[in-house]
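for the writeup, i need someone to sanity check this before i put it in the appendix. the sequnce is what the collaborator sent (i think, or maybe the updated version? ugh). structure was predicted straight from it, no edits. if anything looks off just tell me and ill rerun, i have time this weekend
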Amino acid sequence: MKVCKLIRKHSFKDIRVFEKEAISLKKLGYDVTIVAGKTNGAVFEPNLKRIKDPTFNQDQFEYKGIKFLTYDIKNMYDPHIGKMVNNLEMDTQNYFVDKLYERALAVEADIYHAHELHTLYEAVQIKKVLRKKGKNVKVIYDAHELEQNSKLLRLLMKEVDHLITVSDSIKNIYQRRYPSVPVTVIYNSPLYQQELPKDEHFQNSFVIAYEGVVQYQKGNPKKILQIADLCKNSMKNFRFDIIGYIDPTISYNEKKLISGHPAIHCKWVEYENLPKELNQVHAGYIYFDIRNINKKYALPNKFFSFLNNGIPVVVNRAMDMKNIIEKHQCGIVIDKDDPTAEEYVEQFLRLYKDRKMLARMSKNAREAMKNHYCWEKMEERLAAIYKGLK
């Protein structure tokens, strides 16, 4: 069976879209094509850097056994919603912001798997066009976050055959909204990682890590700077690793303070190198501004990456992360919406001083991943969804 995955805002090498789902589908025997966007004529990495290698900037190419069709993105964040709604209501197909629709339609896949609200529009329109030609295709909506219950989404959901989402709380909300559409949670988790040997410095140091993009709503540069200052003065051989990058919206002064801080190391790491990079980390730091409902219900890549590498996580009161940590005793929840840097440091000091507790939580984290959350378990869920659509 042919599968066509549709993305506009995501990198062609997006961890969930490509490294996890597409690779798993290929392994399960599906013929997978990803229709991915380019900016200024080039595809881009997950850190948004444009790729200059001409191999990846052709109209079509193959990478790790997955076929790619590319197009130039127009209006990535601001398509004309009113025109989309009108076309759906009138059952017409005369509004598309770029060539994504055209490229995806040419695949004539059996299943169209959309990863964004606006690419779901293209998937649904393709389903309608091919249905008129006598081909019955299925549409999956992979909702990476909780979308507003807009008129556009309500119209699109009438044609969705299966909805995938990323946390149990978001699943429950979607089920209440659209009771006729089956919903499955597929966590943003990696393949299970066997424990790697530690070097001789592990027991005599303490490394806190943040993984991903540092934003004001995720990570918060001010808190990171304060945590690093406090821990540097309280812990022997302390380091704070930012495994990712600083969002362009962060102020110049804060970027400068982070880059010049003696205890903070910041670098981008490729997905396949994460286990090696995380192997010397003792504790994970996650702060989400949970006034944003998607942050409140988030179960992000970084959360499962930490647990998968036996790293206890210290988080604020984000509901779904809180539930997993308390169920498996694999980290510490600060039961506040917006803990101070001092409150985070208090918990990091507990782990720094009590290495037995640190080791126990580390073991619990690995066992939770192996038995419940690793990508091997998620692949089984993905396989069941696709089997059910045949």
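The chain has 15 helices and 14 strands. The mean pLDDT is 96.
thx in advance!!
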